[in-house]
Write a structure and sequence with these properties.
There is one protein chain. With 113 residues, this protein is mostly helical. The protein has one domain. The protein has 4 helices and 2 strands; from the N terminus they run αααββα. β1 and β2 form a beta hairpin. It is globular, with a radius of gyration of 17 Å.
């Protein structure tokens, strides 16, 4: 089984992008895991079910390098735009069922059950 950074490296489309150092890619994987943990209100993102969204977000973050915060751009007939924040909507769709509701037990009017 390959490491997360090797999987990110394999998913990058351009040969020059695949030349990123494995240490750098591992940091991008850790960053994407932190974003996903914050979005899902979790600290436990270990396990196979978390690998795909973490790897996909790491690839997105690497591909966005040099264009951080871009909402819309067009060069040579190629358009790009980033949708709402750090996590793209297609990845959020995968993550929504895994989100935890924070503070729900504090909302019970009957107190401890």
């Amino acid at each position: 089984m390959s490491t997360s950074s090797e999987r990110v490296q394999a998913l990058l489309t351009y040969p020059t992008m695949a030349d990123y150092e494995v240490d750098y890619l591992e940091r991008m994987v850790m960053d994407s895991e932190s974003y996903i943990q914050a979005y899902c209100n979790r600290t436990d993102t270990d396990g196979d079910e978390w690998d795909a969204p973490i790897i996909r977000l790491a690839v997105v973050l690497v591909n966005r390098l040099g264009a951080e915060g871009s909402v819309s751009a067009s060069e040579g007939g190629i358009s790009r735009s980033w949708d709402g924040g750090d996590i793209p909507s297609d990845i959020k769709t995968i993550l929504k069922p895994r989100r935890l509701i924070v503070g729900l037990d504090r909302c019970r009017p009957w107190g401890d059950a």
